[in-house]
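TL;DR need C-alpha cells for one chain.
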Amino acid sequence: MKHWYLLLITGLLFIALSIWVFMTPIASFLALAWVFSIGFVIAGLSEIIYSIANRKELRSWGWYLTGGILTFLIGFHLSLRPELTALVLCYYIAFWLLFRSIMQIGNAFEIKDIGIKNWGWVFVFGLLGVVAALILLWNPVITSITVIYWLSFGILSYGILQIVLAFEFRKLKVKIENIKDGVREFLSR
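>> reply
TL;DR here they are.
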C-alpha cells in the first residue's frame, strides 16, 4: 500500500474537475464533444479490425463492420467540425445509440439460437437503448445539459471514491506495518 496519498491527490483533482464541469457547462460540453469525436474514431477502427478478424466465426460480422465504419466516419466528421459537433452531438449520439441498440436486439436472438440462456438481458438492454436514443432525439438541448451535470456528478463521485480508498489504504498500510513489526519482534526473541 505504498503511495496511498496519490489516490488522495487524484480524488482531489477529480473533485476540482467536477466543480469546473458544473460551473462551465458550455466549455465542458465542447470538451466532451472533442473527447467523443476521438473516442468514436478509435472505437470505429477497433470494431472494423474486430469484425474483419472474426468474419469466419461471426454470422453478423457484416453488422459489426458496418457499425465500425459508421462509428469511424461519425468520429472523423465530428473531429473536423467542432462547432457542428457541439450543436448536434446529441443527434449523433442518439442515432449511434439507436443503431447499436437495434444491433444488440438482433444479437440477442443470435445468441439465443446458439443456446445462451441469458439472451433476454441483451434484448432488454437493447430495448432500453432504443428508448434512450428516442429520448435523446426528442430534446437534445435538455439532454446535453443533463449529460454535463450527470458527468459532473459522476466525476465528483469518482473523486470521493478515490479519497475514501486513499484513507482505507492508509489504514491498511498501518496495519501491515504493525504486523511486520510484530513479526520482526517475535523473530528477534
